[in-house]
């Protein structure tokens, strides 16, 4: 069937599904099989991850005051700092 052939082509393709000639298929998910959907999903996650900052954010807490110290430290952080990794 056409569906099988399309999925074989998409599995072998090295271009991102949303950027290639088959981008229209993103709107017709019934045509795509699970492997192609998974590949597309991971590519989209990588795209999102590229836009995020990769800096680490240190949070210093005392063992006997974990809740209070972590709340105080995180409350002081800006929204941009909160996007960093802990």
- Structural class, by secondary structure, is mainly alpha
Helix content: 40-55%
Cα radius of gyration in angstroms: 21 Å
Low-confidence runs (pLDDT<50, min 5 residues)? none
DSSP strand content: under 5%
Secondary-structure element order, as H and E? Answer: HHHH
Mean pLDDT: 85
> Which overall shape is indicated by the principal axes computed on the Cα atoms?
elongated
Number of helices: 4
The count of β-strands is 0
Largest sheet: none
Notes on the structure:
One of its GO terms (cellular component) is Golgi membrane. This is E3 ubiquitin-protein ligase HUWE1-like. GO terms for molecular function: ubiquitin protein ligase activity. Keywords: Transferase. The chain is elongated. It is 50% helix and 0% strand. With 86 residues, the chain is mainly α. The chain is built from 4 helices and no strands.
Brief descriptors of the model:
4 helices, mainly alpha, 86 residues, 50% helix, elongated
Which helices and strands appear, and what pairs or packs with what?
Layout: H1 2-12, H2 34-51, H3 66-75, H4 79-82
Summarize the structure.
The chain contains four helices and no strands. By secondary structure, the chain is mostly helical.
């Amino acid at each position: 069937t056409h569906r099988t052939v399309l999925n074989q082509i998409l599995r072998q393709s090295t271009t991102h599904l949303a950027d290639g000639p088959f981008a229209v298929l993103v709107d017709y998910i019934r045509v795509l099989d699970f492997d192609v959907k998974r590949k597309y999903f991971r590519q989209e996650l990588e795209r999102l991850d590229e836009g995020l900052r990769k800096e680490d954010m240190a949070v210093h807490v005392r063992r006997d005051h974990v809740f209070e110290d972590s709340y105080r430290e995180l409350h002081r952080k800006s929204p941009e700092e909160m996007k960093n990794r802990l």
